[in-house]
Design brief:
This protein is 30% helix and 33% strand. With 115 residues, the protein is of the alpha+beta class. The protein has a five-stranded antiparallel sheet. Strand 3 and strand 4 form a beta hairpin. Helix 1 packs antiparallel against helix 2. The longest helix has 22 residues. The chain starts with a strand and ends with a strand.
Length: 115
């Protein structure tokens, strides 16, 4: 089974995967940037570096990233309630199997919160 990161926007019409093109974002580059610079690894000897060594650091890193992402998205979509970080599980053929939302950015508190 494969796992990939995804970013979801919650609006009045529900929860949807970000329309990357609509916001001028390149999906693969954004995900690589996020994974390398904000998500990272909790393993001290990871080749990616020890970006998020604990839960507090993970929340701080995500707050920084999602605050920036919210600024971009909210320029085009005024009704954004939250932006979620999700893990999508795919079959070995790449077909969507399930999704687990692991946290979200709350624009009111300007913080990333773990579910």
């Amino acid at each position: 089974q494969l796992v990939t990161l995804n970013f979801l926007i919650e609006t009045d019409s529900g929860l949807h995967v970000i329309d990357y093109d609509k916001y001028g974002l390149w999906e693969i580059r954004l995900k690589r940037f996020y994974f390398s610079n904000f998500y990272g690894s909790s393993e001290p000897n990871s080749p990616q570096g020890n970006v998020s060594p604990n839960l507090d650091r993970f929340k701080k890193n995500n707050t920084i990233f999602f605050k920036r992402l919210y600024e971009i998205v909210s320029k085009e979509t005024s009704q954004v309630k939250r932006i979620y970080l999700a893990l999508d599980h795919l079959s070995k053929e790449g077909v969507f199997v399930s999704r687990r939302n692991i946290g979200y950015f709350d624009p009111d508190s300007k913080r990333f919160k773990i579910l």
